[in-house]
Every structure is written in C-alpha cells, then in structure tokens.
Design brief:
The complex is a heterodimer of chains A (434) and B (298). With 434 residues, chain A is α/β, with parallel strands linked by helices. Chain A is built from 17 helices and 6 strands. In chain A, strand 5 and strand 6 form a beta hairpin. In chain A, helix 2 packs parallel to helix 8. Chain A is elongated and about 95 Å long. The two termini of chain A are 26 Å apart. Chain B has 298 residues and is of the alpha/beta class. In chain B, the strands form 3 sheets. In chain B, strands 6-7-8-3-9-10 form a 6-stranded mixed beta sheet, sandwiched between helices. In chain B, strands 2-1-4-5 form a 4-stranded antiparallel beta sheet, covered by helices on one side. In chain B, strands 12-13-11-14 form a 4-stranded antiparallel beta sheet. In chain B, strand 4 and strand 5 form a beta hairpin. In chain B, helix 2 packs across helix 3. The chains are: A alpha/beta (434), B alpha/beta (298). Chains A and B meet through helix 1 and helix 7 of A and strand 6 and helix 2 of B.
C-alpha cells in the first residue's frame, strides 16, 4: 500500500477515535442549537418583565396617544405627582412619567423610578412623545387630521442584484450571517487544526519516533501525510456538525411549531398551509432566513477555502513544529503565522463588510494568505465567478509554495535536537541541499 | 555487501564526513566506532537514505543505493522512541507496513516475534504503560520485523539493563548466523571485541583506521609483556627492557614491561632465568579500548 496513504490513515484514525473528538463533535451542534433556541425564545415573548410606566399628563396632550409595545406598557394615572412619587419610593418596579402643564412652552418631562430605565425603554418613550407632539404641532399649524393620515411615508430600500440571469433579492441577512460565520469558522479552524499539525510533529520529535519513521519514508511524505490526515479530521468534524445541526434544527422546529401547524391545518385549505406556516408567527423569520441561504453554493466554496487555507497555513505550522522541541518554544515563530490571519480577520469585519467591492477588499480576497477569510466575508455580497476561480487558483499555488518552503525546513528540523533555533538558522536549513 | 565510497557530507560550516570509504563484508558483524560527533550518525543516516551525501556513492549488493533498498535495511537509531499513545500491536503493524510488508504478512511476523520475546499479552497495551526496558524490546522488534538483510544498530545497548542487553545480543547473533549483515555503531569497546569481526574508526569526520579486529589488535602490539616471578633481579635491565609497572603481591613480583627493539622474548628469558623463578609470562595485546583512545588522542 502507498506509504503516504498509510500515514494519512494513522493520523486520521488516531485522532477521530479520541474521546475529545467525539465530545467536540457533539457539543458544538448542541451549543449552536442552544443559541438558536435562545434567540427563538427571546423573539417569541419579547421578554416578560417589561416595565409599566404610569403617565401623569397635566398637559392633556398625550392622554390616549400611547401605544403599548414590546418594550413598554403605558398606563394613564390619576394620581397627583406627590402621591406618585410616594408610590415610587415604596415600589421598586414602579416607573412614573411626569408631563407638566407648560410642556408647550419649554417645561421638561421627567421620569421617576428607583432604578434607571433601560435605553430601549427611554427611546421608545421619547419616540412616542415626539411623534405625538409633532402631530399636535402640525394640527396647531392648521393641517387637519385627514391630510395628516395621508402623509405618512413608509419608504425602505430593497436591494436587487442584477445579473444576466435576471434579478434576485440580495438583501438576505441570513446569507451575510452565514458568510461571517464561515469566515470566523475558517479563522478558528486554521489555528485549531494548524496547531494540531504542529503538536503532532513536536510529539514525534520529542518521543524520538521520527528517525525510525523517516528511515522508511521520505520526510516530505510524513509531513504531507500528517497535514492531509488532520485536514480530513477537520472536514469530518465540519460535516458531522452540519449534519447534526441540521437534523437537530429540523427536530426542534417541528416540536416548536407543532401547535401552530395543527392550528393552521384546521383553519385553512391544504395548499395554503405551508405558506401560512412559514410566513406566520414570531421565530418563523429565522427559519425562513436559514432556508433562503444558497447552501449548495456556500458549502462547496467554504470547503474549498477551508481546505486550501488549512493546507497553506498548516505547512507553516509544520515547519515551526519541526524546528522546536516544546510548545513553549513555538512563540517566536508563531508571530509571522498569526499576524496575517489576525490582520485579515480585523480587516474583514471592519473594512470588507462595509466596502465589499473596493479594490482593497478585492486584493484581500485574492491573495492566498488572506483569501480564505476575506473571501467568505465577501461571498454574500456577490463575487464574480472569475474572481472566485482566480482566488482558488492562487490559493492552490500558495499552498504548493508554503509546502515547498516548509518541507525544506522540516527535513532538517526534525533531526535537530537540543539546539536553540533562530530565524537565521531556519534560513540556513532552507538553503541546505538534499 | 555494503560498499561506501568516498562519501563527503558538508553542513553549512562544518564537514561531517570527509572522503570516507568503508567495505562491509556480507554476513559479518561490523563495528562503526568513533567518539561523539565524529560523523557516525551522519554516515548511518546516509546509508538509510535519510540524507544524501554531497559526494560519493554507496552500493548495496552491487546496486547503487536506491529507495527500493529501504525494505532490506533495518535501522535502530540512537535517538529512538515510539508513539506513546498508540497501542503496541497497532504501532508495530504501522511501522512494519511502512517498511513495505503487506498487512497479513506483518501481523504474522509480529506475532512470531512477540512469541519469541514472550510479550504476546502486550498487543493492546499503550506504549506509555510500558517500562523503558519493555519499550526497548518493542523497538528492537520494529527494527528486525521485516527480516532485513542489513541491520544497522546505533548505540543499541545504551539504556539497556544487563539482562535485556544479553537478550538482544543473543538475538543479534542469531540473526547474523541466519545470514544478516550487522553494523554496530558504539563506543562500548568490550561489546566490539565480543561481537565484531571488523571495524572502522571514524574521528573528526575522517576514517582513520579499519580492518579485522584481530589484525588491528596484532598491528598495535608493542612488545609489552606481563611477567610474574619470585626472587629479585640484581643486574640492570635497561638494555633489554623498560619497566612500565611493578607491584609485589604475596612475594610474587608482577611486572609490566616493554622489550626494547632488537631484543626478543628469548633474550628476555635468557636474561631472567639465571636470576629469578618465573611463574608467568604473557604478551599484552592492546584492547580495542586502548587502540581507540590511542588513535583519538593523537
């Protein structure tokens, strides 16, 4: 049997059989579902401890204008200001909004409570007060209520992506979220699996198995076997996460919406049921959003960029692992690997998100060292196929290059014991002949 | 069997091997000697194709060394170890397959060796649960499991307890008697005298001495003798021999002497017999240890 294949098999199975792999594989989908359930639960009932604000309106302008909404309940109070203040002192959950008589001429509205009201509560109150005040002022200025009703603009921008194939909605927030999540996932997994490669090599060095193995195979075969084997471990983990998350999600959705579905089924004719279920009700918008994402497009691209980026960086991690004898020595060599990743990560979420089509974003998503993360962030905004192809092509070229550089350092490093290594030393190793 | 010709290995600022040529005969036990840092390990790594020489060639059974030879060589490095978390059986299987054995073949041979070493029950144990001596047995099996024609052992006895050392020595001799050629790299000279047919001494990257152990020791004879006698020598001895060491025990005088050039043992006896009662006379043949030290010091 091919020796590289033997090495890949050993690296793969020795890791997949570990308990920690199983735990991670099952824990992460649980966490994802947990978060999903939490968001769902919060959006379902919008929080249950909304403050009730008692309004003392001496001006008489606002009497019936308040709308109860998700964050605040309003209650018109007949109490006097002093009585109300007493109530506040005795009751820590009481909020009193005091609107003085002379509000038209510049008096200030005050809110009394034992604790500070939340920002959303204050802004809701302010918005409602301002809306009503504006209506009153417009009426005072001679505009009747009919005219007022007519001039309620409600504008929003719907962005449409126009290509030769036609136009489509591109405002999908879910696609963006998935792109960002993919970028973060790639960023983290480059480190997680890259460091596994590095540790694996340090382990072979410190346990002194290395010389036994490389008397049977070429150092390059051993390095590639390890990198590919651990890469497959990463892919396996992702695949299991996706499958597990998807099935758990489906399960959770059916349980949560069972009542809803039955209710709709009894009320509506068959053909409208599905539509009704998917458009009705809080929480459903998340489910809808998840379904609008083009998984068949994003998933393959994600896999390609994860694997390409992983191959590129893990080769560098391998070179570091070969040069040192313990984790603590890796620090100085890690910096050149960490820096481009960290730079891309920061750029992605501060710059690329806001300027996905700028030339800087373009270059970041094309250059092999930054593209695995940057491309994932750009993807939801639409990336031309030729850019994608060029990026993948360069990524492949990039990992061939880093693997070549790394293997030259690796073949010397793995046989060096008890030597403090510097960057200069690594350069020398690189220059050695065979 | 193995012909090493004019090997040069240059590292950035030092030359590890300088024009080294060595012939190892088929079926022999060959000692590769030298102090630390002499270049032994560099040479062994080149034979194992871990690194390549800058100049020179190596022939194995008349063929230029190439990757197909890997399966005919067994190598126990000085820096040796095992995967700590891996089960012994699985690990042996992995290493044997890397040497080119098929899976079924590998399993059969590993079982055979496990029986021979009486360690059948270790198959599912992890390396980290074994003592150092036990690990050494496993390492030795890994070296010879694919039935190599050439076995290279770099400091095989370092860290072995006497029992295991003897066990491994016996295994080595048995493999040798079945036709395997063995190369030892060591500084334990007593094992060299005990085991090796021929040696090469490498010092400061150069081969400074090689040949059959017997021939080399003869070559280094320097007319030293040990004599024991009762009585005392009354005439001056300077003309015939010089005394290197003298001690008296239970009335018997023990002398270590060197006979001067132009004189023979017979001259010595003629000189001594009239004066003392000789109880013992033997030539001192230098040990490999002496030869080693003498060569390295010069």
């Amino acid at each position: 049997m091919n020796k590289t294949l033997l090495i890949i098999k050993r690296e793969y199975f020795s890791r997949v059989k570990k308990k920690s792999f199983l735990i991670m594989t099952f824990l992460v989908p649980m966490l994802i579902i947990g978060m999903y359930a939490l968001i769902f639960a919060l959006s379902m009932n919008g929080g249950d401890n909304n403050p009730t604000v008692e309004v003392i309106d001496e001006s008489g302008i606002f009497q019936k204008g308040f709308d109860n909404n998700k964050s605040v309940n309003f209650e018109i109070s007949e109490l006097s200001l002093t009585e109300a203040k007493k109530k506040v002192i005795n009751n820590e959950d009481a909020f009193v909004l005091y609107i003085p008589k002379d509000i038209n001429t510049g008096g200030s509205i005050e809110m009394f409570a034992q604790k500070k009201a939340g920002l959303s509560v204050i802004s809701t109150i302010e918005r409602q007060l301002n809306d009503q005040m504006r209506i009153k002022l417009l009426k005072d200025a001679g505009i009747n209520s009919e005219t007022l009703d007519k001039i309620k603009p409600s504008l929003s921008v719907v962005s449409k992506e126009l290509t030769i194939e036609g136009e489509k909605d591109s405002s999908s927030g879910a696609a963006m979220a998935v792109g960002f999540a993919a970028a973060i996932l790639i960023y983290m997994s480059l480190f997680i699996y890259g460091i596994q490669v590095m540790r694996g090599i340090i382990e072979e060095k410190t346990s002194r198995i290395i010389e036994v193995v490389i008397s049977s195979v070429k150092p390059f075969q051993l390095m590639m076997g390890k990198i590919i084997g651990i890469g497959f471990v990463g892919l396996t983990q992702f695949l299991l996460w996706i499958v597990l998350s998807a099935s758990l999600m489906t399960l959770a959705t059916t349980i949560l919406f069972k009542d809803k579905v039955e209710q709709v089924r009894s009320e509506m004719p068959m053909n409208k049921q599905v539509e009704a279920v998917s458009t009705n009700g809080p929480g459903m918008d998340i489910v809808n959003a998840v379904q609008t994402v083009q998984w068949t497009y994003i998933l393959p691209v994600f896999i390609i960029f994860f694997f390409g980026g992983y191959m590129l960086y893990s080769a560098l991690f391998a070179a570091v692992g070969s040069a040192v004898e313990s984790d603590t020595e890796t620090q100085q060599f890690m910096l050149p690997i960490t820096l481009p990743l960290l730079f891309t990560y920061i750029m992605s979420f501060s710059f690329i998100v806001n300027n996905p089509d700028s030339s800087l974003s373009f270059w970041l998503s094309i250059i092999p060292f930054t593209s695995p993360i940057a491309m994932m962030v750009r993807l939801p905004f639409g990336v031309p196929n030729w850019e994608l192809a060029l990026s993948i092509f360069l990524l492949i070229g990039g990992f061939i290059f880093t693997t070549w550089v790394a293997s030259r350092i690796y073949r010397v490093g793995i046989l060096m014991y008890g030597k403090k290594v510097s960057f200069k030393e690594l350069g020398k190793w690189f220059m050695y002949k065979e | 069997m193995l012909s090493i010709r004019n090997i040069v290995k240059q590292y950035a600022n030092h030359r590890a091997l300088d024009n080294v040529s060595i012939e190892v005969e088929k079926g022999s036990i060959f000692g590769l000697l030298g102090p630390n840092g002499a270049g032994k390990t560099s040479l062994i790594r080149i034979i194992n194709q871990i690194t390549a020489p800058d100049y020179g060639e190596i022939f194995l059974n008349g063929e230029k060394l190439n990757p197909s030879h890997i399966s005919t060589i067994g190598y126990l490095p000085e820096e040796r170890g095992l995967y700590k978390k891996m089960e012994i059986g699985e690990q042996m299987l992995y290493l044997a397959q890397l040497k080119g054995l098929s899976k079924s073949d590998a399993i059969a041979r590993i079982k055979l060796w496990f029986e021979k070493m009486e360690i059948q029950s270790w198959w599912n144990k992890k390396v980290e649960d074994l003592s150092k001596g036990m690990q050494q047995k496993v390492q030795f099996i890994a070296t010879v499991v694919h039935d190599p024609k050439l076995i290279i052992l770099d400091e095989p006895f370092s860290g072995f307890d006497p029992v295991n050392a003897q066990l491994i020595t016996n295994e080595i001799l048995e493999l040798n008697s079945k036709g395997a050629t063995i190369i030892f790299s060591t500084h334990r000279m007593e094992s060299v005298e005990q085991l090796c047919d021929s040696i090469a001494l490498i010092h400061k990257s150069k081969k400074i001495l090689d040949g059959k152990v017997k021939d080399i020791r003869n070559l280094y004879r320097n007319n030293s003798y040990h004599i024991a006698f009762t009585g005392s020598i009354t005439t001056p001895t300077d003309q015939i021999f010089s005394i290197n060491n003298e001690k008296v025990e239970d009335g018997i005088t023990h002398l270590t002497i060197q006979i001067n050039p132009n004189y023979s043992v017979n001259d010595l006896l003629n000189f001594l017999i009239p004066q003392v009662q000789i109880t013992e006379l033997s030539e001192i043949i230098p040990s490999m240890n002496d030869i080693f030290i003498q060569n390295v010091k010069n």
